[in-house]
Specification:
Elements: H1 13-22, H2 27-39, H3 53-62, E1 68-75, E2 81-87, E3 92-100, E4 103-107, E5 111-112, E6 130-131, H4 134-143, E7 153-159, H5 169-180, E8 192-196, H6 200-210, E9 215-219, H7 225-231, H8 239-248, E10 257-263, H9 271-281, E11 286-292, H10 306-318, E12 322-325
Parallel strand pairs: 4-7, 7-8, 8-9, 9-10, 10-11, 11-12
Antiparallel strand pairs: 1-2, 2-3, 3-4, 5-6
Helix pairs in contact: 1-2, 4-5, 6-8, 9-10
Amino acid sequence: MSFDDTPLVSANLEELKAILSQEGYPAYRASQIFDWIHARGELDPERMTNLPEALRQTLKQSNALVPVQLGEVHTSADGTRKIEILLSDGLMVETVLIPDGKKLTQCISSQVGCSVGCDFCRSGKFGYVRNLDAAEIIGQVLVAKQAYFEDEQLTNVVFMGIGEPLHNYDNVVRTWRLLCDPSGLNLSSRKVTISTAGIVHGIEKLGLDLGGKAALAISLHAATEDTRQKLVTGLKASLADIIDALKRYPLPKRRRFTIEYVLVKGVNDSDEDARNLSKLLNPIPVKVNLLPLNPHDLSNMAPPDDARVEAFQRILVNKGISVFMRKRRGDDINAACGQLLGKPGK
């Protein structure tokens, strides 16, 4: 590893020490660089004032810091911001900042396109192009700071943008570790959520590698195999296999899985669907996020009306399941769940 071949934003502290050692610098310089990048969010070496001039020039000339650039920023009427992230090969993904007062949740992408391609989701309509590397994923968090409003602070990160995170396992986990590193952003493991459409081997590996610390969200969207195959067309894992994987996951005490369920009119929104969902989820600790479909230009599917959504929710609640209605944010700029798009060019 060296300055010339390693984007420093994706290196952990020990790797930074090894890189700096090769260049003849003491280990504490690595700690200073890591602090500047991850704790302070500073990407301009000239502003890293406690570094010697020679090191700042080396960082500046090596193109080693962040391999992505901020593109256009689109701001919703509700304050949500959709940000174009420009990649070095000319491709583009999108990330979203969702404000709650001065607190921000950032939704980040893990792939260009998507390898799953759910029928109702805009993100996979151009197919899968490639995985993002860890520098491109963490880079979304770092460059998005340019779009913060005054006094805003990042408190939550969700891997719910473009792509299937567990199909890009190594880069996603590396990014998760950087986000939670006490010497960097120091986000709580409860506040960094990895979402998956149900990659069973990835769920199992995540449990082993992170000891259950990663908050896990499952994009289920159906309670029967036939319905799921209509909506989630790119996966072979059965619902039974997914539930079995969750049963084996080393979930810490007092934590729950988040079940994401997009309600599509006439497809998965009936009373029977709700009863089947409650039976399916009965063996595991969960909270359910109900998301009436966010319409977009690349799908003819539609959300159910409010009465149908309330009836569905009521059945789950009566079965003892915690249910939350996901508030629609940023839909006027195609920034809501299922509306993001990453493709060549713009």
